[in-house]
Automatic annotation (TrEMBL):
It comes from Allopontixanthobacter sediminis. The keyword Magnesium does not apply. Residues 23-187 form the Calcineurin-like phosphoesterase domain. InterPro entries: Calcineurin-like_PHP, Metallo-depent_PP-like, Metallophosphoesterase_sf. One of its GO terms (molecular function) is hydrolase activity. The keyword Glycosyltransferase does not apply. This is Phosphohydrolase.
Length: 249
């Protein structure tokens, strides 16, 4: 598989100091640890690539594992999560559940995430540096509670952002939350060379399928993911790490 490409974008957000250095968020998603294409050894190399970007926050938008029938090896929760424990950032690593995580062993993954110092957010919120991060549980399996997550963010200090596995909750996110980060779509995984994809696993088709979307005063960034599901291949979609710089107005 190809080395992940680093996509960069800058988002200007009211509430951050205008004269401060930008806050750097590394977004990864859809790691799908499984043989043959994403063994833990390959994930360790990607973790080193993320650390070299020197992020302030690492956000993981779900689907740590793949239990696809074509897999040559299915790993344990400990083997899946251990490389992620080596991620380094100033304010921590935060992850939300994906549909494959629930289908595999969410309790086992949750135990290993906690043991490795990674914060799991499932319709919960936490302060990380100057941000208040709300983490949605998986919308694809109907576990997301946007209202409850927004309620959990009330009273927390910091600029509000949402981390979600699926991008589909984005239209319902209020304008008071200026940034949402997501994955799930793989940018199609198998895409057309001229853009777009025949399948995105999103109710909105290609509208929120890939990359940055600015809409109704809010910004959405959807990662292409790192691994694969169903089949261990990608076509016209490279694995991606997003580096998002937040700058104050």
């Amino acid at each position: 598989m190809a080395t992940p490409q680093v996509e960069r974008t800058s988002v200007t957000i009211r509430g951050l100091p205008a004269n401060a250095p930008p806050l750097r968020i590394a977004l990864i998603s859809d790691i799908h640890v499984a043989g043959p294409d994403m063994p833990p050894e390959r994930l360790e190399e990607i973790v080193a690539q993320v650390n070299a970007l020197e992020p302030d926050i690492v956000a993981i938008a779900g689907d740590l594992v793949s239990e696809k029938r074509t897999a040559t090896h299915i790993y344990t929760p400990q083997q899946i999560v251990a490389p992620l424990g080596k991620l380094r950032s100033r304010f921590g690593t935060f992850v939300v559940p994906g549909n494959h995580d629930h289908w595999f062993d969410m309790p086992g993954l949750a135990r290993e995430l906690g043991a490795n110092g990674i914060t799991l957010l499932a319709n919960e919120a936490v302060v990380a540096g100057p941000l208040a991060i709300g983490g949605l549980d998986d919308a694809y399996t109907r576990r997301a509670d946007l209202r409850g997550t927004l309620a959990a963010m009330e009273g927390l200090e910091g600029v509000r952002i949402i981390l979600s596995h699926s991008p589909d909750p984005f239209p319902r996110v209020p304008r008071g939350v200026p940034l949402m980060l997501a994955g799930h779509t793989h940018c199609g995984q198998v895409a057309y060379p001229w853009g777009g994809a025949p399948a995105t696993m999103s109710d909105y088709g290609n509208r929120y399928a890939c990359g940055r979307v600015d809409e109704n005063g809010k910004t959405l960034v959807v990662g292409a993911g790192l691994g694969t599901s169903l089949l261990p291949l990608r076509l016209f979609t490279r694995p991606t790490i997003w580096l998002i710089e937040l700058r104050g107005k």
